């Protein structure tokens, strides 16, 4: 009989200092903890989200537990993380809970306010939200106006831009939120009925409003090129993305196309697959065609070399 072995996402624990190798320049993990986090898949399901009516408003969040899994591997305590598509602030909260500093950029005023409120409630003074367009991430004026000098220790004097130890983010998955599958039970319809957001915003700069697929990949790739300028030498960037199926039936390999595009600037180091094991299955193609229930995302790992 096949036995399913589940990897339990670990709660943030302070590693035993004595067991952390003195040569470990990447993180604060012991050898045993390090090895566990190199498995190419992990289960992190809906029970792992911080939930309240406020965060539920956002239509596409990832769990704070997922953030913890990665920032504990790719940074040490006290280091700085950037999320250019901060949404409800999951990256910032995960960083605060593990003693990291973070900056999130978010286009929507509503979601930026939501993140700020969450940070205030948690007393997370080491984490900040900038309300604006991530395509301005390498514009010194954007940082100057947004942070009022609060991060002066992070600024590089050469180009007046901050340097981050790690970037962790999840961008819009093309304009998929705009394309309701229309089924009676679709998540889109259920959310609309409950008065929750079904797309991010109507803003022109919102990447979730670009309908042309190639144009979307190029616009997003351009933002990641700019983010890469802010990543320190040998720093890692983790991008959570998914292949998507359009309602007409075709699957667009978004995660793979994005990997190819980002690889023009950063070195692709592999992926970890985030499995959602408790998500409800939809009966999309039954009983005539195969339609996958996409319950996994790719956590794509890149490094600046
Ligand atoms: C997939 S969501 C991020 C969710 C986030 N990881 C969380 O768990 O809450 C993508 C976010 O990117 C934002 N966004 C879209 N275009 C943007 C842009 N040009 N600059 C900054 N944020 C943008 C959207 O408003 C949305 O909140």
Structure in words:
The structure is a single chain. The chain has 305 residues and is α/β, with parallel strands linked by helices. It has a single domain, classed as 3-Layer(aba) Sandwich (Rossmann fold), CATH 3.40.50. It is 27% helix and 20% strand. It is built from 9 helices and 12 strands. The strands form 3 sheets. An 8-stranded mixed β-sheet has the order 1-11-12-8-7-2-3-4, sandwiched between helices. A two-stranded antiparallel sheet has the order 5-6. The longest helix has 16 residues. The protein is globular. The N terminus is likely disordered. The site of S-adenosylmethionine has 25 residues, from β3.
Largest sheet: spatial strand order: 1-11-12-8-7-2-3-4
Present as ligands are: S-adenosylmethionine
Quote the CATH topology.
Rossmann fold
**What is the helix fraction of residues, given as a range?**
25-40%
**CATH class bucket:** Alpha Beta
Mean pLDDT rating? 90
How many DSSP H or I helices?
Answer: 9
In the predicted model, the low-confidence regions spanning at least 5 consecutive residues are 1-10
Q: What would CATH call the architecture?
A: 3-Layer(aba) Sandwich
Q: Gyration radius, to the nearest Å?
A: 19 Å
Can you summarize the main beta sheet? 8 strands, mixed
Multimeric status of the protein: single chain
Number of domains: 1
SS-based class? alpha/beta
Which word captures the global form? globular
Query: How many strand units?
Result: 12
CATH level-four homologous superfamily name? Vaccinia Virus protein VP39
